[in-house]
Amino acid sequence: MQHRSRLEAVIEVELHNADRYSDFNRALEALNVFTIGFNGERKDPGEVLQSIIEKISQMKDGARRRAMEYTLLSAGMDLDARRQFEEYCVAENSK
User: Residue ranges per domain, the chain?
Assistant: First the structure.
């Protein structure tokens, strides 16, 4: 749960980012993850995180999936975990 809370906090910050052309927001758009509900209000960060996880888990292209994971989820990691994740993405993409 600790990682989820950290990720939710990162997503909350990104949701308030005014730059709709940021890598994060463009990745959400590419995955068709909506951040505004039918009622016109911003969705809860936990709900957005769940949508991100569901959409990424359905991706067949491994390289694209890892790119989306990195863009949308790695910001919530501490430095060591992020380095390991970067190594994972590079190693998997070089196969």
Answer: 2-93
